Task: structure prediction
Amino acid sequence: MNKVLTAEAMLDQIPDGASITIGGSSLSRKPMALVRALARSGRKDLTLIVNVGGPEVDLLLGLGVVSKVIYAFVGFEVMGLAPNFRRARQGQIVEFEEWTEYTVMAGLDAAIKRVPFLPTRSGLATDVLKVNHAFRTMTDPFTGQQLVAVPAIHPDFALIHVNYADERGNGVILGDGHIDVLCAKAAKTTFMSCERLVHADELQRFGRDVQILRIHTQGVAEMPWGAHPTGCAPEYRADLKHLEEYMAAANDPAKWAVYQDSMVFVEHGQYLDRIGGREHLVSRLHV
Result:
């Protein structure tokens, strides 16, 4: 079955109020081209579910289309704090639910296993249990030890970006897979972008690196440099220069409006042209 779609065709299926889990981690392999297409779609009141969030969360918060964020961390690593996220968090503009990296994984895994919760020790003796009332403590019926019950997370949609994919929706992830497999399996509908579409026979040469299976995906789009400005190992590094420009724009209302017009509300090909084109990106960022 051919699952190749445009980004717009995929994201047209996402309604207002949907919950969306996003793959990648921090400045690594975020599906930024899909996120920008989501921003252009006009959807609102979205719930974002991330483990370690970065520019994708910050961008959507800055556009005012998010009503809730479930997260372990959101930031720009060595670049500093995420400007739009920080303002929204401090101003309590939207609802924030603080988890840990492991509990986000456990919540997605519970959904995959079709159980209401999973027990873990993660969160014990921490303030996570004070700030997140979704968790419960419980007693292990076998040992009597105290555990944390992590409720299942059921995303409506997952957005992920991979290195290679075939038209049937199988995806190759080279390097750290982060939580993308959990996202793809837990979501009701998974949309995937890739650096390059390849024939199914060629894809099978990657063996265990075919981490995303077609049974979990409903759409795939070829979008070279689709993780930019985050990195996509081993293809290219994160674009720290562009992230500096993004952060400067996010801290200035006038510059933020210009950034949206020039970098968000344009199709992916135009976006690549405006950041210098593919040859320029290769010369600066290709590993």
